[in-house]
Amino acid sequence: MAFVVCALGVAAIYFVVYRISKRLGMSNNTTVLVDTTYESFKERRFKVPVRQITIGSFRNVLYGCAILAILMGCMLLVFLVILILQQTGAA
Prior knowledge:
By secondary structure, the chain is mainly α. Helix content is 82%, strand content 0%. It starts with a helix and ends with a helix.
């Protein structure tokens, strides 16, 4: 029973994180990170200012940290629910 609850919780968390990342436009997260490498910066250093690139990558990191924090909180919540169910003997 506890395994089923844990699997459902992980699936729900994954779905929520996927929807949030789609809403924030992070589905192409890797291309954004690859775009901010030094090689691509050398190619277009006269077109794009350094500040814009660093702010973009910093915002990307912030979004990643926020989604990770939400994920950790949800997993902790699922763990606590499983613990309470085991204490009461329902699981």
